Amino acid sequence: MTSTTRMLVGTLALMLVGCTGSALIDPTSPTGNNEQSPTTRADAAAETDPQMGDSLHLEPSDPDLVLHTDPVDTLPDETQGPGTQPPVVDPSGIEDGAATDDVPQTGTQFPTSSGNEGPPAGGPTSPGFETPGDDATVDPSPPVVPPPDPPDPTTDLPPPPDPPDPTTDPSPPPAPAVTWIDLPDGTFSMGDTTLASPVHLVQLSAFRMTGTEVTVAQYRSCVAAGVCISAETCTWGDPNQDDDSKLDHPIVCVSLAMARTCCQWLGGDLPTEAQWEYAARGGTDRAYPWGNTEPDGTLTNCDPDLCSDGFAETSPVGSFPAGASLHGLYDMAGNVWEWVLDCYDGTYYATMHATCPAGCLDPLNLACNSSAYRVLRGGSWLNDAATFLHAANRSLAVPNGTKKSVGFRCAAAP
After folding, report:
1. Cα 390 to chain center, whole Å?
2. φ, ψ for residue 347, nearest 5 deg
3. Sheet order of strands, 360-361 included
4. Is the pLDDT of residue 42 over 50?
């Protein structure tokens, strides 16, 4: 390289460093435009740091002259770590007469023609980033999606459901058939001079009553329907609900509430004390459902010392047709005691007699709290004295008691 060429290169280098700053964009400038201070960076550095005085003086004859680009003109590069030096340009590769714009530059250079163009596509903001031009328009409305075709009722209807499989989808069993006995309205003398006094008149509206005590099979159906709770425990004795050999025996070990629930499921409720005695005596003054004959093993199920009926405990309902009541109800005496609705009150008969000399209509005593004694009627297989089986006899029990000698029957409106 001739000395003249070297001088030309040096001159070009000085012009590039000191004079061409206005032709470069500083991307770090907060204004984001192409303005450049007329003071060169070298001059500014010299003004701020006196020790840089001769560091920017370039000798054209220096054979090792290299041109360093200003790091400020270089955009951040994620591939360069902190302190990474930018590449250098060897001016020896510049031929005589070459334009300064042909000098390679480091970093990203933005056009200087208008000052408002953004970075090229795929620039530093995000992959594939594009800045639309001034004449670009953006449609803010969402794309229009045509509505779906309406369903065709002849082809788009869902198939009908399969009928239930009784082996996998069993329905709750219906209430079992119950024999109801209709009883007419009437007036009768309730009580007994020795067992339940005073004797007083009672008027009753017509009603009906189950012909037998509720059986194990019937109560099981109520449990299977999810209505009744299981009678699997007793406060005294052994339950019979799960004994398949006693499906036609009266259910035992049921509380007052359990009995009422089952009766309501069957379409009625427990009878009142007056209804029960009226049904047992048939509206007459007979001592027993069958009449005035003393109990024995042909008429009812009671203790063997009295009845000798052949049953150790309960018997199938209706086993003693000779002991049926005047209206055809079975086991109104013996087999099991039966719950009725009334609270037990030893003075209640006297109160009714004084209040209703001509007979109270459909009396029912519920003047007690939930834990008070309730009335039991009829006697059971356990009793060995005829007085327990008398149609006027009254006994009592706590309402939550469950005994193997206590069951129930139901009553309902006609």
Report:
1. 54
2. -105, 5
3. 186-192, 196-204, 360-361
4. no
Tell which residue, 261, 271, 267, has the closest CA to residue 230: 261
Tell me how crowded residue 294 is: count the other CB atoms within 10 A of its CB. Answer: 10
Residue 292, exposed/middle/buried by CB under 10 A (0-12, 13-18, 19+)? exposed
At 242 the three-state DSSP class reads: coil
| Alpha helices (H) along 249-312 | 256-265, 273-281
pLDDT, tens digit, 9 for 90 and up, residues 199-223: 999 999 999 999 999 999 999 999 9
Whole-angstrom Cα Rg for the chain:
56
**Which ranges in 121-254 belong to alpha helices (H)?**
216-224
Q: Is-contact 381 304, C-beta < 8 A?
A: no
User: Is the pLDDT at 284 greater than 90, yes or no?
Assistant: yes
Distances in whole angstroms, Cα of residue 38 to Cα of each of 1, 19, 21, 43? 33, 8, 8, 10
Kindly state the average pLDDT of the residues 213-239.
96
Query: So where are the chain's domains?
Result: 3-102, 180-412
DSSP, collapsed to helix, strand or coil, labels residue 215 as strand
pLDDT tens digits for 379-409?
Answer: 999 999 999 999 999 999 999 999 999 999 9
Per-residue confidence (pLDDT) for residue 149, from 0 to 100: 73
State the pLDDT at residue 40: 43
Euclidean distance between CA atoms 172 and 163, whole angstroms:
16
DSSP 360-414: EES-----S-TTS-EEEES--TT--SGGGG-TT--EEE-TT--BTTEE---EE--
Token pair 């009625």 in the structure block, residue:
268
Residue type, 128: G
Which CATH number is associated with domain 180-412?
3.90.1580.10
Say whether pTM exceeds 0.70: no
The count of other CB atoms within 10 Å of the CB of residue 360 is 19
* Number of neighbouring beta carbons within 10 Å of residue 240: 22
pLDDT digits (tens, 9 = 90+) for 59-103: 444 444 343 444 434 434 444 444 444 444 454 444 444 444 444
- Beta strands 207-210 and 411-412, pairing class: antiparallel
